[in-house]
Specification:
The complex is a heterodimer of chains A (about 350) and B (about 350).
Chain A (H helix, E strand, L loop, with lengths): L1 H5 L11 H27 L12 E3 L6 E3 L1 E4 H4 L5 H13 L4 E2 L9 H9 L8 E6 L6 H15 L4 E6 L7 H5 L5 H10 L3 E7 L4 H9 L6 E5 L10 H4 L1 H6 L3 E5 L7 H4 L5 H10 L4 E5 L3 H11 L7 H15 L6 H4 L6 H6 L11
Parallel strand pairs in A: 3-4, 3-10, 4-5, 5-6, 6-7, 7-8, 8-9, 9-10
Antiparallel strand pairs in A: 1-2
Helix pairs in contact in A: 2-14, 4-5, 5-6, 6-8, 13-14
Chain B lengths: L18 E4 L2 E7 L1 E4 L9 H13 L4 E2 L9 H9 L8 E6 L6 H15 L4 E6 L7 H6 L4 H10 L3 E7 L4 H9 L6 E5 L10 H4 L1 H7 L2 E5 L7 H5 L4 H9 L5 E5 L3 H12 L6 H15 L6 H4 L6 H7 L8 H9 L13
Parallel strand pairs in B: 3-4, 3-10, 4-5, 5-6, 6-7, 7-8, 8-9, 9-10
Antiparallel strand pairs in B: 1-2
Classes of the chains: A alpha/beta (about 350), B alpha/beta (about 350).
């Protein structure tokens, strides 16, 4: 840690992370409301026929690797009440056939990576571990330092997937592909065998994703919000998913319920419908945050032995939520700063959210 | 009805504002600087607002913008008063505010606008506030505002039709894809827009290809935020916007000082060389990238609460931003704007 504590850019102490505060409140909803929904559903069919079935595996683009169709989101692992709860979520997920675990260098200031690292002790080889690098426009060296830190916290000598986090600003592609930028770090880490595959992620605007893809960089994966509302509002599904697929890049879906359950809370659809829609898209996996066993079990009800929705059912879901989609109110990650990290804004020299309109 | 608004003007002096063709209509020329209607309602008093209109006209402005819902009709009334005796020498535009509602409401609004503006016809009538992803569908639906617009043109009450919006180039492109015969399209055009969710790169070329008049607005990014911040000067900003391949740049002026400052740039206008425009775009690119200088695209700060209500979208009164827009528009809180008789 000596090296890192000297490196100013990686020093994260005292940084306000606006998203965390927001998500903390929203997660309370997810945990309580969804748990109740689960309980009710379970009562209805305690002998669910698919309860022993595993979560299906899917190919990760052209990489040759296989990943589970449902992935465990890393941010919410840091929202669990303690390490034993995180351990149990991870163990139960593995037993149900989930191998995909998401994370990021800056989630809960490193706590999320720590929780996953501990939970995977002795089980590392059963998991496909992803984490993200948070340079936010800074250089390759910063990225490489973050990688070392992530590997230590995750207690592993390599990542299965390393992605550039929060590509959400219009100048991010320029910064990432600038000489000595983060793209060079991805290539270097892969060459060194520290990461098997590389990608990027962002929740803001399909146009920014498309700009990233124009660079012709050999990304193995690209992560994006995919849900029933996205289909008719500033849509990743219609603009980015086909392009990534065409380029042979694996697509990782996220925010199936709007980021913090906004779609469910707002009455657009049920949690089951939301997840089923997202998982029925041509994606490698759908990453979902689960901060309690109840939420994991709720997701597993959909994911075990998963059968995709028919084209007609997909369309009727899109049509049903279209009225809520048109102003982006349930996709706040696209329309507000609520899901944007404070560190990223700071690094881009943008004013902090409290200096901007609500 | 086919009067060329500029032909009857005095011989242009050395300091006249340049005139430009209205899209593919080479015979119709309007001033490259247009006066925005909303700010007339923000003037210190009615007298000042009327003087702004008159002095603007005397300074060479022939393009006048307005909208049915600006200050609940006050802006149209002030413009009507200010243009008395000059109606046939100007190009008069106002906008209709159905926000997804039906043709009958649009027609009712048109009659009211004509009354307030003291005229029997508009040169341009535009659909206001095309900001939501479902607006193109609502506009084109059977019984929607599109029908009222075509009828008004047929009846000679309006010469040309258009639409306006400040939210997302994708929505503008959807409107253009409907095939409706638009003569004009209005959109935010400034140096920040060039690299962020850009109307300039996504919509403007399509308009020029089709010969549709491109009307620029928000040359100062709405309320001049980047000028106060020091990211760009007012002169640079206006000169940049006016140098784009468009018919007119519309900007609001609530004070005579502001009008005079804009007139100075417009009367001595020389287009910014291409390299200088690129350099300016590059200079502001860093701060443009999250849209905090284009809040009309990234927040609801510039949206109308009544438009949200007409769409059936919620107004979260706990949000400071919502409170602000409700106060700014003196919103009644009723789902449909009343049409005062």
């Amino acid at each position: 840690m000596q090296k890192n504590s000297e490196a100013e850019p990686v020093n994260q102490s005292g940084v306000k992370f606006s998203r965390r505060d927001f998500v903390k409140g929203a997660a309370a909803f997810t945990a309580s409301t969804l748990a109740r929904v689960t309980e009710e559903t379970m009562k209805g069919k305690s002998q669910a026929p698919g309860s022993a079935a595993k979560v299906p595996m899917r190919p990760l683009g052209n990489t040759g690797a296989q990943v589970s169709a449902l992935g465990v989101g890393g941010f919410h692992l840091g929202s669990t009440k303690d390490q034993p709860e995180a351990n149990e979520i991870v163990a139960r997920a593995l037993d149900a056939g989930i191998n995909f675990f998401d994370n990021a260098w800056d989630y809960h200031d490193g706590l999320s990576e720590g929780r996953l690292g501990d939970a995977l002790q002795g089980k590392r080889d059963r998991a496909f571990v992803m984490t993200k690098v948070c340079t936010h426009g800074r250089s390759k060296d910063v990225a490489m330092q973050m990688l070392e830190q992530s590997l230590r916290r995750l207690q592993t000598d390599h990542l299965d997937l390393w992605q550039i986090h929060e590509v959400i600003y219009y100048n991010d592609p320029d910064l990432i592909f600038a000489p000595n930028g983060a793209a060079e770090a991805l290539a270097l880490a892969k060459q060194q065998g520290k990461v098997r595959f590389v990608g990027f992620t962002g929740h803001k605007d399909p146009a920014i994703h498309l700009r990233m893809l124009k660079h012709g960089f050999p990304f193995d994966t690209v992560q994006m919000p995919l849900n029933a509302c996205d289909a008719s509002f500033r849509s990743f599904e219609t603009q980015v998913l086909p392009e990534a697929t065409k380029q042979g890049i694996a697509v990782l879906g996220m925010k199936s319920l709007g980021g913090s359950g906004e779609l469910v809370r707002g009455g657009a659809l049920t949690a089951h419908e939301g997840l089923r829609y997202a998982m029925s898209l041509p994606v490698a996996t759908t990453i979902s945050g689960m901060d309690s066993i109840a939420v994991l079990e709720q997701n597993l009800e959909v994911a075990r032995g998963f059968q995709p929705l028919s084209t007609a059912d997909m369309q009727s879901l899109r049509d049903r939520v279209k009225q809520y989609a048109a102003d982006g109110r349930f996709e706040l990650f696209k329309t507000t700063k609520m899901y944007d990290g404070g560190v990223g804004r700071e690094q881009h020299h943008f004013p902090t959210p409290d200096k901007l309109p609500a | 009805m086919t009067t060329n608004p500029t032909r009857s003007r005095q011989t242009p002096s050395a300091t006249a504002i340049p005139l430009r063709p209205f899209g593919s209509h080479q015979d119709i020329r309007v001033s490259a600087l247009g006066m925005g209607g909303h700010h007339l309602g923000d003037a210190a008093d009615d007298e000042t607002a009327v003087r702004i209109v008159q002095e603007g006209f005397d300074g060479g402005i022939t393009f006048f913008d307005n909208c049915w819902e600006y200050h609940r009709g006050k802006s149209e009334i002030l413009l009507g008063t200010g243009l008395k005796g000059h109606r046939d020498k100007v190009f008069l535009m106002t906008k209709v505010c159905t926000h997804g509602r039906d043709a009958a409401l649009a027609t009712e609004m048109l009659e009211q606008s004509l009354n307030r503006l003291q005229t029997d016809h508009l040169d341009l009538w535009q659909l206001h506030g095309v900001s939501f992803e479902n607006d193109p569908d609502l506009f084109m639906r059977p019984g929607g505002a599109a029908e009222a617009m075509l009828k008004a043109k047929q009846q000679g009450k309006v010469r040309f039709l258009g639409f306006t919006g400040h939210k997302d180039p994708a929505i503008h492109l959807k409107m253009l894809a409907t095939g409706f015969p638009f003569d004009a399209v209005q959109m935010p055009l400034n140096a920040f827009d060039a690299t962020f969710r850009s109307f300039q790169t996504e919509v403007l070329p399509e308009l020029n290809r089709r010969g549709i008049a491109a009307l620029g607005m928000k040359p100062f990014s709405g309320h001049g935020e980047p000028i106060q911040n020091g990211a760009i000067t007012a002169k640079e900003a206006l000169r940049y916007a006016m140098s784009l391949p468009i018919t007119v740049t519309i900007t609001g002026m609530d004070k005579l000082d502001v009008l005079r400052q804009n007139l100075k740039v417009a009367q001595n206008f020389t287009p910014m060389p291409r390299e200088e425009m690129r350099a300016l775009e590059n200079r502001v690119k860093l701060v443009a990238a999250d849209g905090h200088f284009e809040l009309y695209k990234t927040s609801i700060k510039f949206d109308n609460p009544e438009a949200r209500l007409a769409h059936g979208f919620p107004l979260d009164m706990k949000s400071a931003e919502v409170e602000e827009i409700v106060m700014a528009t003196q919103n009644t809180g009723k789902p449909f704007p009343q049409i005062p008789k």
